[in-house]
Amino acid sequence: MLSTRNITFCLTLVIVLLSACKKGAAPKPSFDIFALGSVSMANISTPAYWKNGQFMSLQAPISANALTNTIALHGTAIYTAGSLTGTNGMARAAYWKNGGLKDVSAGFAASTIKRIAFRGDDTYMFGFAGTSTSTYPVIWKNDVAITLPPIAGIRDYLDLAFSGSDTYLLTNALTTTNTQVAGYVKNGALVKVRDTTSSSDATAMTISGSDVYLCGNGVINSTVTAVYWKNGVRVQLASQGQAVANAITVSGNDVYVAGNNNGATIWKNGQVIFHDSGALSAALSIAVNGTDVYAGGYSHSGIATIWKNGQAMQLPTSMPGESSRINKLVLVMP
């Protein structure tokens, strides 16, 4: 049963999302906000999502031997993906579409799915496969596995994105002196972000036209701090260290980054436009619609939260005592 606080929140969120309406007409939402994430209880985390502030059950057969790493929306379909643990103790790549389970581990001794991306009607799932002692990256296109060729210098792969006919893989790479630096692979070619920092790591990526934006962390004056790069040119986000950049998006000529710096923080073109006073809160995702800036993450009390232009709206869960978080916001226009 929803508490008075959660009922009040749901009403508030609905009002916030309503478009201007004619007098006497029933108000209609101008778009839907999907908040994709997870809920946790007793150290067990399961995927979850909220539509316009209402908690929605995935009804996926998640059990103790299943691990979900990612959740994504494509049209009206909700995808969650990760792995199942087989009788031999090895992980098997699997995903759920609207709760229906699909095992795509055939041909691999061990495998798991980390990210989901879409291009037209095609579904791409990025992950890893291999043996108990070695792994290699794999993309499943419409459930068919494609093993990626090895690229020297890649330390790890983090995400998958498309722009037109180009395919991008977010990575962290190693220099010839074994220094870790942020980078990406475009159509099979590795591009390293090498600037004045001694080392760096990437957390998120977005593509806008021919421009490639990465965000993450760089070591500046011996301190790790939040940064982003546009085509390899670094922008420092925090004047002091220990800030973290978690997500990045571009709207027109403006660059927005979500992260935390002793509390959930949003930067626009390198300047702070919102900072939450809860030191343990974090912004993990960001989306922009016109002049409205939405961020999703969790509050200092561990509750899934949407910030719209800095105003916090905590999301309900199905059971009291559950912690929750938002990993990605998706704005769906009619």
UniProtKB/TrEMBL annotation:
Highest taxon of the lineage: Bacteria
Name of this protein: Bulb-type lectin domain-containing protein
UniProt keyword Signal present: yes
PROSITE patterns, A to Z: PROKAR_LIPOPROTEIN
Signal peptide, first to last residue: 1-25
Lineage: Bacteria, Pseudomonadati, Bacteroidota, Sphingobacteriia, Sphingobacteriales
Entry keyword set: Signal
UniProt-listed InterPro entries: Quinoprotein_ADH-like_sf
